[in-house]
Design a protein that fits this description.
This protein is mainly α. It has 18 helices and no strands.
């Protein structure tokens, strides 16, 4: 099947699956969706193929590599050069730099650079997505702050947000990732695919949510976003962000230990009973989706298994699986899968997201937890759409 027709099939499936859970088809804004789609395809080509785009990606990758080098200085001091001997490599080289990146985000937040960026970019996005400024601001702040810390900025207006708008905000948080762990991703995946996914996921989220959860905003609410660290001095803020970064490291480590052990146990049980591993069975379930987004038939089973691993566990474990098999995959399949993996779209995110919101507003936390499965469904469609668009572009440039 020609690549363009293959992509058209993927796009059709995403639209149909989105409309299946839509409760008000009349409010869908087709014009804005088409506008977002065209912009997303152009951005995908820009980031993956154009000279300017590739230069931008290389510049960002070099910057993150430099930051990871600075982070390594702190890690080496505490752990006595263990990383240089490749001891506890994943923890020291991939996870520990999150502490330093989180610290930088705190500084930029404190000096009002990040709030300025969120306001400017959010305002521009609101002009092209057909949604309110609140949803647009949230898309950018989720990308920068992460799904747990993001809603602190909206704590003063959480009680006034409708359920539909709350769903959009939660879906956006689950479909993006935090800048604090982008450096960790870049140690496991090609930087250009990570950065491409960050951009594409924002637009894919607006497209899918516009189909799944359409609504009208009659009057824009007065947006008075809270200042997360108001009243703190610089060093109080710094300590808080350092500790927040370390908490993320510990949480991710704990989840990896638990999920890897659980998967090993499940694989043993399934092999004993069915002579096929649990991940192998999941691979068959996701085989059609992998093929639809552009992966070749002979690689779709392996890629589908990794896609499923990400859904039932988390993106780090799936990225580790990709590293093991990437040498045997085509560059296009590796790129498609890499873009798919860069998001928080998995079952564990339901508890993280609802818990974070519940700590700020109990009612809205309950609302989000009730949306849980639908949020994972929506954010997975977002990942599929982003990966399909990347697959289309990669077909013509690889």
């Amino acid at each position: 099947m020609p690549a363009f027709l293959h992509f058209a099939l993927a796009l059709t499936i995403v639209v149909v699956l989105s409309l299946l859970v839509c409760q008000d088809h009349k409010k869908i804004k087709i014009g804005y969706i088409l506008q977002l789609f065209i912009i997303e395809v152009i951005l995908a080509y820009f980031l993956l193929n154009s000279e300017t785009g590739l230069s931008f990606v290389k510049g960002c990758a070099a910057s993150f590599e430099k930051l990871l080098g600075f982070a390594g200085k702190g890690t080496d001091f505490v752990f006595g050069g263990m990383s240089e001997k490749n001891l506890a490599f994943f923890f020291l080289k991939v996870l520990c730099p999150i502490v330093f990146i989180s610290t930088l985000i705190g500084i930029l937040q404190y000096v009002k650079v990040l709030p300025f960026i969120i306001q400017i970019v959010g305002t521009v996005l609101s002009k092209v997505n057909g949604m309110g400024k609140l949803e647009s601001f949230n898309a950018i702040s989720s990308l920068i702050l992460g799904q747990s810390e993001n809603f602190i900025a909206y704590k003063d207006i959480l009680s006034k947000i409708s359920e539909k708008r709350m769903y959009t905000m939660a879906a956006t948080s689950m479909s993006t990732v935090s800048m604090s762990i982008v450096g960790a991703y870049m140690t496991m995946l090609d930087a250009r695919f990570v950065l491409t996914a960050l951009v594409l996921n924002i637009f894919s989220t607006f497209i899918v949510v516009s189909l799944v959860n359409p609504y009208e905003i009659s009057k824009e609410e007065d947006l008075r976003l809270g200042v997360p660290h108001q009243g703190q001095n610089f060093f109080e803020m710094l300590s808080e962000y350092i500790l927040t970064g370390f908490k993320v490291v510990i949480i991710v480590s704990a989840m990896l230990i638990g999920f890897i052990a659980l998967l090993a146990a499940l694989n043993w049980v399934f092999i004993a009973i069915f002579n096929l591993s649990f991940q192998g069975i999941l691979g068959y379930c996701f085989y059609p989706l992998a093929w639809v987004i552009g992966v070749s038939k002979h690689e779709a089973l392996q890629v589908g298994s990794i896609m499923a691993t990400k859904l039932v566990s988390n993106e780090f474990l799936a990225m580790m699986e990709l590293q093991k098999v990437s040498a045997g995959l085509s560059p296009r399949s590796t790129g498609i899968l890499s873009v798919f993996l860069v998001s928080f779209a998995n079952f564990s995110s339901i508890g993280i997201l609802s818990g974070a919101i519940k700590s700020l507003n109990k009612h809205q936390g309950i609302v989000v937890s009730q949306f849980g499965l639908k949020l994972v469904y929506t954010s997975t469609l977002v990942s599929i759409l982003s990966a399909a668009i990347a697959g289309l572009v990669l077909h013509y440039i690889i």
